[in-house]
């Protein structure tokens, strides 16, 4: 069976600052890519790193310092708001399991709005805390505290834990070694044929690979313009 439309499968963990930046940029580019399906899959980045014996950038002071400076430059050029949090890293198991439950039970639009919050890499709030998750998601989920509480409870259920683990295992099986990683499927090609792209700076290459327009890193209204 061949793929009817191009697809981008975006593996993410909220702990990754480059994933945050990549998601924001993909939000921008997808407006000009109406024939591409985009699927966001929550994973545990620590689990990926352990499986492939990779180490995060923040383990090395020189790489950590470069990462922060690099992200600040990208923010200035792209207009994507960004501020590296003081409490980095934090444990994202709870919010990622909540997002796994949201993906299963909520409409895609609501789920993607929940991913897109600026709690950690703009406002510096500790997203490992249930009360921070509650405050962030309640306005999206019909201003219902009870609804968010139900998702916080689901995060501890066996089926959600298993689904989250399966996402992470699936990513490893596909060759994922960090985040963000995008698995690309081309329209017209076999369903089992896929291509891996790693990093938030791969969108120009992805656009060329799929024959799509590339709007560029700098917004049309100039550097520093906010989204």
From TrEMBL:
In terms of InterPro entries, this protein maps to: DSBA-like_thioredoxin_dom, GST_Kappa/NadH, HCCAis_GSTk, Thioredoxin-like_sf
Question: A single Gene Ontology molecular function, please?
Answer: glutathione transferase activity
GO terms (BP aspect):
glutathione metabolic process
An annotated GO cellular component of this protein is: peroxisome
Q: Which domain of life is it from?
A: Eukaryota
Q: Name the Enzyme Commission number(s) assigned to this protein.
A: 2.5.1.18
Q: Which reaction does it catalyse?
A: RX + glutathione = an S-substituted glutathione + a halide anion + H(+)
UniProt entry keywords in alphabetical sequence: Transferase
Protein name as annotated: Glutathione S-transferase kappa
Species this chain originates from: Entomortierella chlamydospora
Q: What is the lineage of its organism?
A: Eukaryota, Fungi, Fungi incertae sedis, Mucoromycota, Mortierellomycotina
């Amino acid at each position: 069976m061949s793929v009817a439309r191009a697809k981008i499968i975006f593996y993410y963990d909220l702990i990754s600052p480059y994933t945050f930046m990549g998601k924001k940029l993909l939000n921008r580019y997808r407006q000009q890519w109406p024939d591409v399906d985009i699927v966001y899959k929550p994973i545990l980045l620590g689990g990926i790193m352990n499986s492939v014996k990779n180490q995060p950038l923040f383990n090395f002071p020189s790489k950590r310092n470069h990462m922060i400076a690099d992200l600040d430059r990208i923010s200035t050029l792209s207009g994507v708001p960004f501020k590296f949090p003081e409490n980095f890293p934090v444990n994202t198991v709870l919010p990622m399991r909540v997002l796994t439950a949201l993906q299963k039970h909520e409409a895609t639009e609501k789920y993607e709005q929940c991913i897109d919050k600026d709690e950690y890499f703009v406002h510096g709030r500790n997203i490992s805390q249930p009360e921070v998750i509650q405050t962030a998601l309640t306005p999206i989920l019909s201003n219902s505290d009870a609804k968010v509480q139900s998702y916080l409870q689901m995060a501890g259920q066996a089926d959600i834990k298993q689904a989250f683990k399966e996402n992470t295992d699936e990513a490893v099986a596909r060759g994922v070694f960090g985040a963000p990683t995008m698995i690309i499927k081309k329209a017209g090609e076999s369903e089992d044929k896929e291509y891996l792209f790693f990093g938030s700076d791969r969108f120009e290459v992805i656009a060329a690979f799929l024959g799509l327009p590339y709007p560029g890193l700098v917004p049309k209204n100039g550097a520093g313009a906010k989204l």
